[in-house]
Task: inverse folding
């Protein structure tokens, strides 16, 4: 078993977290017609996406725990690779992979946006299983079931981060937990009232992004120094 390089591991975790944050931000802002990196730098990426990434990290931890504590003990040694089913899958992996990709592509075309992006999460599973057979990774993590679960989790996280951003972006107007601008303290130029509030979408650098329920317009507004934006729950 190879020894873990702590410096390289720290660099990988940091870089991977940054990639997840970038994918989430792109998934959230691009459908709204905004490129977040026109307003924020790479240093702000993880900070802006940290809160949204917490549920993703929790889901990954839950999946990992279930796989290791419930599924793994049931499998024979080798994570099921030497069972009849496992041998069949290894012998016929090419047609199975082709069918998997074709089925995933077809589903992606017909499932409505934004939920079609969650198909990518499932679609990436075979890549994690395939990576677990690399000799270099086998030396790094000798335990078959642990290695496979870890890699499947890692390859699922990027599409999950992006799809989470897409789904949250599409549901802004229906999200009753999202704060709104206090109707009695509306900034000038914002069309809103008590029945049709201005919804707080997010912050990009020194800009505040609002959604007018009345017009459906997205407002990108630079917040002046010393200016307060009064938010409240619905």
Result:
């Amino acid at each position: 078993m190879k020894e873990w390089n702590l410096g390289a591991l720290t660099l990988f975790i940091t870089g991977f977290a940054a990639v997840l944050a970038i994918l989430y931000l792109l998934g959230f802002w691009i459908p709204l017609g905004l490129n977040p990196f026109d307003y924020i730098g790479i240093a702000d990426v993880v900070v802006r996406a940290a809160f949204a990434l917490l549920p993703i990290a929790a889901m990954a931890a839950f999946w990992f725990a279930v796989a290791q504590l419930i599924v793994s003990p049931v499998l024979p040694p080798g994570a099921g690779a030497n069972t009849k089913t496992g041998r069949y899958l290894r012998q016929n992996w090419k047609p199975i992979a082709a069918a998997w990709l074709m089925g995933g592509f077809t589903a992606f075309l017909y499932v409505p946006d934004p939920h079609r992006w969650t198909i990518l999460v499932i679609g990436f599973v075979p890549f994690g299983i395939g990576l677990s057979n690399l000799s270099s990774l086998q030396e790094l993590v000798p335990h078959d079931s642990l290695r496979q679960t870890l890699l499947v989790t890692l390859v699922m996280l990027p599409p999950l981060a992006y799809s989470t951003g897409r789904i949250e972006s599409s549901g802004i107007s229906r999200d009753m937990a999202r704060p709104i601008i206090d109707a009695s303290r509306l900034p000038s130029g914002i069309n809103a009232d008590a029945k049709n509030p201005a919804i707080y979408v997010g912050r990009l650098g020194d800009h505040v992004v609002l959604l007018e329920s009345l017009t459906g317009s997205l407002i990108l507004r630079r917040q002046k120094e010393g200016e307060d934006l009064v938010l409240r729950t619905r």
Notes: The chain has two domains: 6-170, 180-232. Residues 81 and 87 are 6 Å apart (CA to CA). Helices lie at 6-29, 42-71, 84-91, 93-110, 118-123, 125-131, 135-140, 144-170. Residues 42-71 form the longest helix (30 residues).
